[in-house]
Design a protein that fits this description.
Number of strands: 2
Helix content: 40-55%
Radius of gyration: 31 Å
Structural class: mainly alpha
């Protein structure tokens, strides 16, 4: 049960409590529920009991408002395939809730973050395009004299084009290798530094190591 119930009920860890027609023992303190909702009904104090104890407690009777929830976790594609199979079999009293439907506030925050990241990415692409254009113009102006000298020495158009394409290809390969190595290192170190802030172990891409 939640810790706030202990002083209110005057009990301690290990004491028995009455639940309906039966007695249960307080065996643990509930500290956090990652899947807890944000509605008014979810703000009440919680008591978690084994479903095997419910028949003896007699708390579920005709007219009782009871909800059964199943939590599913796994690979996104596996869950999608399973839900696609499950949806046609649901009754009118059953439904599937994802994060956006089950927790509207979290979904709204995710939508705003997604919009912000999309705008930031668009601006980054635009600025990068402008930077590439300016760099290409400056590069062309600076190498105009070099091209003129090579042409005066008899170099043809294809020869000059091959020289500059080779230089650009080499620079691209070097920059890509450095970027991949740096990105892999930063990702692994970031996971190690931030793993204490998450209640679950972050899942790394295949082939990555902490």
């Amino acid at each position: 049960m939640e810790s706030r119930l202990l002083p209110l009920m005057g009990i301690q860890l290990g004491d028995p409590i009455a639940l309906g027609d039966t007695q249960l023992k307080v065996t643990a303190i509930l500290e956090r529920e990652p899947d807890r909702g944000t509605s008014l009904f979810d703000m009440g104090a919680r008591l978690l009991a084994n479903t095997a104890d419910l028949p003896a407690a007699g708390v579920i009777q005709p007219g009782s408002r009871v909800r059964y929830r199943y939590l599913f976790a796994g690979d996104d594609q596996v869950l999608k395939d399973y839900f696609d199979w499950l949806k046609p079999q649901l009754t009118e009293h059953q439904r599937i809730l994802d994060l956006r439907e089950g927790q509207p506030r979290v979904a709204s925050a995710l939508d705003r973050a997604e919009s912000f990241l999309f705008l930031a990415a668009s601006l980054a692409v635009l600025l990068a395009s402008v930077a590439v254009g300016l760099a290409a113009r400056r590069y062309g102006l600076r190498h105009g004299a070099y091209v003129a000298v090579m042409k005066s020495l008899g170099a043809g158009r294809n020869k000059i084009l091959g020289i500059y394409l080779g230089q650009l290809a080499a620079l691209t390969l070097i920059a890509t290798a450095i970027g991949l190595a740096l990105g892999t290192f930063i990702q692994s170190q970031a996971v190690n530094l931030m793993e204490g802030f998450f209640p679950v172990q972050p899942r790394l891409p295949a082939g990555a190591h902490c």
